[in-house]
Amino acid sequence: MKKKVLVLCGGFSAERDVSLVSATGICEALESKGYQVLRHDLKSAPDFLKDLRSFKPDVVFNALHGNWGEDGAVQGFLDLLQIPYTHSGMSASCFGMNKSVTKKIAAAYGIKVAPSETLTFADYLEHKTQIPFPYVVKPQSDGSSVGVYIVRNEEDVKSVFYKDLSRLLLIEKYIAGRELTVAVVNNKACAVTELKMESGFYDYKAKYTSGITRHILPAQIPDDVAKTAMAYAEKIHRVLGCNTVSRSDFRYNEEDGVVFLEINTNPGMTPLSLVPEQARYIGISYEDLCQKLVENATCRKI
User: Which residues have a catalytic role annotated?
Assistant: First the structure.
């Protein structure tokens, strides 16, 4: 008998809408595989518990994105309930969501990263950053390029804004060059995709608006560059202890080489998402990828 799967989506982060789109495809894919599926739009903990008690899922498919869904919070909750869930566990999710910590771990394992520092927004406004122009300002713990700024001069500094002065920001040297991404499925890198935008950088709008970004798969780059990006992606996936899938993003130019930017331990599953696209490239259908995630679901054992 096929497993009962609760697809957890929505949530409280800025990526709520993306999560809902991902969930639509996931539910259809799992139903096509014969699973009994319940979609749950997370709006409150009591409602979530109610569905868990009544449906009694064998697996929770974590289709949440951003804070509360990717940062270890829901993973720890499901660990306590002893309900297996898809994607990475609490530790890998927590580390992967924290860009500063991920960069330190990556550097310790020989993965090239850009110079950076962590500041509160209040400290940043006092221009205490030691990173020279141009640099990138991004929240330390957010996904989908939400709240990311490229700062090239003093005038650009004025455009950087966050509501919370105590919010931790990652200030990182801007690496010019080509935008590359690598999906890892079951500890093995799939391929390298180059992302080419009509203008600007690969921000939230570019990621989720059809026609704004071209996906070049495989990326037209030297073999040694592709091998380096894939090796880096496999290594950070393995070191963090990611489960089943992850996606790592890089910048490449001839002077700096391949530079690791960040990892996504719970990458999007929308029609424009990169992991399903790379999985298809190596012969894994969207439906099979969803099934693989369900069958590999686990939780921390008490």
Answer: 15, 144, 208, 247, 249, 262, 264, 268
